[in-house]
Amino acid sequence: MLSKNKAEFSLKKVFIKRFFWGALIAWSIVALVIYNSTRHEIDELYDGEMAQIARVLLGIYSSQRIDRQQETQITSSPFEGGEDYENKLVFQIWGKGGVLLIRSANAPLEPLSPETGIFQTRDVYGSEVRTLSIEGPGGRLTVHVGQNIDIRRENATEILESLILIMLFAFPVFLWLIHKGVNQGTRYLNDLSEKIARRTEDDLSPIKTDDVPLEIRGIVDALNKLMSKVAAMLGRERQFISDASHELRTPLAGIKAHAQLALKNKAHEHTALIRIVEGVDRTTRLANQLLTLSGVDAMRVLETPVEVDVKQLIERVVNDLHTEITEKSIQIITQLDSEKRLTGNEELLYTLLRNLIDNAIRYSPPSGEVVVRYQYVKNAHRITVTDHGPGIPGDKRERVFDRFYRDIDAQGSGSGLGLAIARQIASLHQAEIALGSAESGDGLSATVVFK
Predict the structure, then answer these.
(1) Could you give the number of structural domains in the chain?
(2) How far is CA 23 from the centre of its chain?
(3) Does 394 fall in a domain?
(4) 316 and 374 both lie in a single domain
C-alpha cells in the first residue's frame, strides 16, 4: 500500500518547494557577494578620501608656521563620542624629531601609523582603525590620518539591510509569479488528461500536438506511438481471429459432412471414417499452427537464448517427422559444413526448422530427397532446406510468406501458416529467410541466414 506522501505526490509542489529553497540559497549567496563587494568598494572610497584629506592638510600646513599644541588627551578612547562622522576621523601633524605639532580633538598622543606611504589597519585604544601617513617635502612635516573601521562596516551593513528588505518584499511576488506560471503549465497537462479520459476504448487515433507545449510534446509523441502500436496489434488480432475462424470452418465442415455420410450410408462408413480422421489431423495441425503463430506474435524479444547444437536439432526434427518421411519414402540428407553452435531460442528454432523440412517433405515426390545443409560463411550461420518438388514461381515466392496464403495450383495439404511462422521466428533471431530454386533446377530451396 502506498504511503500518504507518495499517494499525494505533486510535481507542482515539488517544483515550487525546490524553487523556494534554491532561490533562498541563491539570494543568500548573492547577498554575501554583494556585501563583500560593497565592503571592498567602500574601503577604496574611504581610503581615497583619507589620502585626499592627508594631502590637503599637508598642503595647508607645509607653508605655515605651526605652534605646538598643549599635549592633553581629551579621552582615553579617542574614537568614542556618538555616531557622528567627525568622531570617526582623526588626524595628526608631526614635525621633525617626533614632535606632535597639531592633532584633532579626538586623536591620540601616539603616532597613528608607524610607517609612511601605506594604508594599515591597526588597533588604537581598543578600536579597529584604518591609518595612513604622508611625509612632506624634506621630511619637515608628517601628516597622519586615521578612520574608525566601524563607519565603513555600518555603511556596508546598511546597504545589505536595504537589499534584504527589497528581497523580502520581492520574494513573495516571485513565488506568486512562479505559482501562476506552474499553474499555467500544468493546465496543459490537465487538458491532456481530460482529452484522454473522454476517449473510448476504440479510439486510438493520435493526439493532436498543435497546441501542446514543447516540454510535454515528447510525452504526447511517445503516447501516440504507443497507441499506434496498440492499434496495429489489435488490427492483427482481429485479422488473425477472422482468418482463423474462416480456416477452421472448412475442415470442421468436412468432418461433419463425412460423419453424416457415415451415418446415412453404411457402405461408405469406412471411407468416411478415414476422411474424418484426416480432417481431425488437419484441424489439429491448423490449431497447433495458430497457437504457435499467436505465441510468436506476442514476442518482442527472444526468451532464454542459448547455444544450440544444430546437428542435434536437425536429428530431433527428423525423428519427430519419421511418420511423414516413411509414408513417402523420403530420404533426408544432412550436410554439416560447420560445428559452430547457433545462439537463439531452441524451441523456436526447432519450430522454424520443422516447418521448413515438413514443407519440403509434403511437396517432394514419393521416394524423393530433402537436403538439409548447415554452413558458417562470412560470419553468418546458414541453414538451407532443399527439395525436388514443383517449386514456387519467382513472382509468388514473397506472397507465400503471407498468412493463410496457398497457391491454387499447390499440391498437398497445408494451412498456409508454416512459412509465415518461419519468417516471424527468423525475425526474432534477427535473421532473414529467402526462397530460391534448387541448384539442380527442380525444386525449392529455403535459406535462413543468421547474421
Answers:
(1) 3
(2) 27
(3) yes
(4) yes
What does the pLDDT average to over 257-271? 75
DSSP secondary structure code for residue 202 in this structure: T
In whole angstroms, give the CA distance from residue 150 to residue 99.
29
What pLDDT is stored for residue 66 in this prediction? 65
Question: Among 198, 232, 267, where does a domain finish?
Answer: 198
User: pLDDT digits over 163-175, tens only?
Assistant: 888 878 887 888 7
Task: For residue 175, give every residue at least 6 positions away whose Cβ sits within 8 Å of its Cβ, in sequence order, or none.
Answer: 16, 19, 20
pLDDT digits (tens, 9 = 90+) for 387-398: 988 888 878 888
DSSP string, 273-291: HHHHHHHHHHHHHHHHHHH
113: DSSP letter:
-
Does 282 share its domain with 143?
no
Quote the pLDDT of residue 248: 67
CA distance 195 to 358: 52
| Residues 449/432, Cβ–Cβ less than 8 Å | yes
Stretch among 77-91, 192-206, 410-424 having the lowest mean pLDDT: 77-91
Q: Is residue 40 domain-shared with residue 134, that is, in the same domain?
A: yes
Whole-model pTM: value is 0.49
Q: Are residues 221 and 258 in the same domain?
A: yes
Domain range for residue 151? 7-64+84-198
Mean pLDDT of 243-261: 70
